[in-house]
UniProtKB/TrEMBL annotation:
It is an enzyme of class 5 (isomerase). Belongs to the archaeal-type GPI family. Its EC number is 5.3.1.9. Pathway: Carbohydrate degradation; glycolysis; D-glyceraldehyde 3-phosphate and glycerone phosphate from D-glucose: step 2/4. It comes from the Bacteria. One of its GO terms (biological process) is glycolytic process. This is glucose-6-phosphate isomerase. The keyword Isomerase applies. One of its GO terms (molecular function) is glucose-6-phosphate isomerase activity. GO terms for cellular component: cytoplasm.
Length: 194
């Protein structure tokens, strides 16, 4: 009987910046997600300036059942109006799949909500892991005034990504600065029936 062999995958990334010297990042600018922010006028100005919000690295592991996909995510400090920079956020196509995020540096929040409308959020600080339960859409939010939020993430390879649901409906909550502190408010642009 022959036994199939597979090559190990070796990747590099910095524990402090999250950046890889050998992998190419995927970048998302304000212009890629301007409709997601509550302050449309502020978003338009930053979109025209070409402002970068976040970048992430897919480390190139095969995406299939039995695999563990992983990478790093770097969300830069900044705000659109008073709303902190954030990732687009997504559900997994296979809803019953989870994900682990480990905060390497910076600070922020992981905002999560399930299709039934339960919302929760947890704090990111260096050395903290946030386990996103199955069925929950997830979005990283940088609440630091000056430091990138850097996380390492891993999820089942067959999970897939559903960005469209959040792109059309939004999250039920937004995170804004109030008196110098993050505050979680109802999203005025959230749409229930789309
Ligand atoms: Fe995910």
């Amino acid at each position: 009987m022959t036994v199939a062999t597979r090559d190990a995958v070796v990747t590099d990334f910095s524990l402090t910046t999250g950046l890889s010297a050998t992998k190419r990042p995927l970048r998302r600018h304000v212009a890629d997600m301007a409709d997601m922010y509550a302050d449309a006028d502020a978003a338009r100005v930053l979109a025209e300036q070409g402002t970068l919000v976040y970048e992430f690295f897919d480390m190139g592991v095969p995406h299939g059942s039995g695999e563990v996909a992983y990478g790093t995510s770097i969300t830069y400090p900044g705000k659109v109006g008073d709303e902190y920079f954030m990732t687009k956020g997504h559900f997994h196509e296979v809803l019953e799949t989870s994900e682990i995020y480990y905060c390497l540096s910076g600070r922020g929040l992981m905002l999560m909500e399930n299709p039934e409308g339960h919302v929760q959020w947890e704090e990111f600080t260096p050395g903290t892991a946030v386990y996103v339960p199955a069925r929950y859409a997830h979005r990283s939010i940088n609440t630091s005034p000056d430091e990138p939020l850097v996380t390492f993430f891993a999820f089942p390879g067959h999970a897939g990504h559903d960005y469209g649901t959040i792109e059309t409906k939004g999250f039920r909550k937004i995170v804004v600065e109030r008196d110098g502190q993050p505050a979680v408010l109802d999203n005025p642009r959230w749409q229930e029936d789309v």
